[in-house]
Amino acid sequence: MKMHFCIPVSQQRLDALGSRYVLYSVYLDGFLFCRVRYSQLHGWNEQLRRVFGSCLPPFPPKYYLAMTTAMADERRDQLEQYLQNVTMDPNVLRSDVFIEFLKLVQLNTFDITTKKTSLDIFLPNERSIQVEILTSDTAERILEVVSHKIGLCRELLGYFGLFLIRFGKEGKLSVVKKLADFELPYVRLGSSEVENCKVGLRKWYMDPSLDSMLMDCKAAVDLLYMQAVQDIEKEWAKPTQAQRQKLEALQKEDNQTKFLELAQEVRHYGYLQLDPCTCDYPEPGSGAVLSVGNNEISCCITLPDGQTQDTIFQMSGVKCWQVTFLGTLLDVDGPQRTLNQNLELRFQYSEDSRWQWFVIYTKQAFLLSSCLKKMISENMVKLAAENSEMQIEVPEQSKSKKYHIQQSQQKDYSSFLSRKSKIKIAKDDCVFGNIKEEDL
């Protein structure tokens, strides 16, 4: 499925010789990922084509005449589509050509040199382990280092991920984003405008029954147990009073296996809970707390009159969804580093045999979208297991296991839209008449 790349804004710059060029601000999951020129992306595409040939998506063509504003906007849209489409191929995602270029542009954008350093990785029990890394190490590489240090079986790496996590007042915890394999955690941690963020290790699957795949690895069980205890303490998972008493007894006995078996029966176990937000259902302006997992979006809704109700949207009823940026980008010395201030996720859902759009206004719209994609990919793996004629490849799961699916079975369920009419950039940035291809 497509990754959440977008290019909502670009700026004109002058090089050392006084020639104009366009710098594109590329965002991933709502955070500024890098700033690049067309010529850099064009050269990268040429490298990829030498490896992967014609299977790559089309790249925006060169213009040999001066570009108009409309042409510049069209190119920006085309580059955005290219980045979204090229990341759909898992073979491209894992290639050195793909990863090395994205490492370089991340470092250059935030003016960071490659050097040795240490990084604290927070475990679900909120304790941290320190690992020695390079500033240019990817999330995938750091996850491997962490797993080796704690004794996590390598074949289980695909069930875990590194996340940007915000620790708030009174012990509140908020998952900001899942770090992509090719992201540089050191760079992301330093470039994020979100306060009190740390890099944390959490399991990365939405189907609680997948716990069974990890029970033979002591380190994996330790992580599952830590996260289960944390989720119950944070009230993300909601045991009954009787369940809570049994869980507390098992916790005192340090019986992790039995604890996790009982936790499977707890409401919202293994779900990811989002920060309080608003939605348009059943009335505009309703408050909502969303818990996502086990093929559903569970909503605790507070109506404008203060009444509450629980609503569940099953993933089987979701046709598609899109994330839209509603805010403005103010360009002073460069655009802001996050789009997360004004986001909505709307999804089309079948209710009473008719399709209806539901809208959620949340800063975690991209994270919510990633969770929905994860649930779909896990369902596709299950479907493939039930139908031996189908084959599917899901790169986010264990790297040692590959599944294949016919192209006709693949479907893109999500999209990202930016309200470009609301994006504010400097007046000079709207003038493209004097820019020629050699300046890009």
SSE diagram, text form:
Elements: E1 5-14, E2 20-28, E3 31-37, H1 38-52, H2 69-86, H3 90-93, H4 96-109, E4 116-122, E5 128-134, H5 139-150, E6 160-167, E7 173-178, H6 185-191, E8 197-203, H7 218-233, H8 241-252, H9 256-263, E9 272-273, E10 277-279, E11 286-293, E12 296-302, E13 308-314, E14 318-325, E15 343-351, E16 354-361, H10 365-386, E17 414-418
Parallel strand pairs: 4-8, 14-17
Antiparallel strand pairs: 1-2, 2-3, 4-5, 6-7, 6-8, 9-11, 10-11, 10-16, 11-12, 12-13, 14-15, 15-16
Description:
The chain has 440 residues and is of the alpha+beta class. The protein folds into 4 domains: 5-88 and 426-439, PX Domain, CATH 3.30.1520; 112-204, Ubiquitin-like (UB roll), CATH 3.10.20.90; 206-266, Acyl-CoA Binding Protein; 272-411, Pleckstrin-homology domain (PH domain)/Phosphotyrosine-binding domain (PTB) (PH-domain like, Roll). The protein is built from 10 helices and 17 strands. It has helices at residues 38-52, 69-86, 90-93, 96-109, 139-150, 185-191, 218-233, 241-252, 256-263, 365-386; strands spanning 5-14, 20-28, 31-37, 116-122, 128-134, 160-167, 173-178, 197-203, 272-273, 277-279, 286-293, 296-302, 308-314, 318-325, 343-351, 354-361, 414-418. Strands 9, 10, 11, 12, 13, 14, 15, 16 and 17 form a 9-stranded mixed β-sheet that branches. The chain has a 5-stranded mixed β-sheet with strand order 5-4-8-6-7, with helices on both faces. A hairpin with a 5-residue loop joins strand 1 (5-14) and strand 2 (20-28). Helix 7 crosses helix 9 and helix 8 packs antiparallel against helix 9. The radius of gyration is 23 Å and the shape is globular. The relative contact order is 0.14. The model is unreliable at 394-410 and 419-440 (pLDDT under 50).
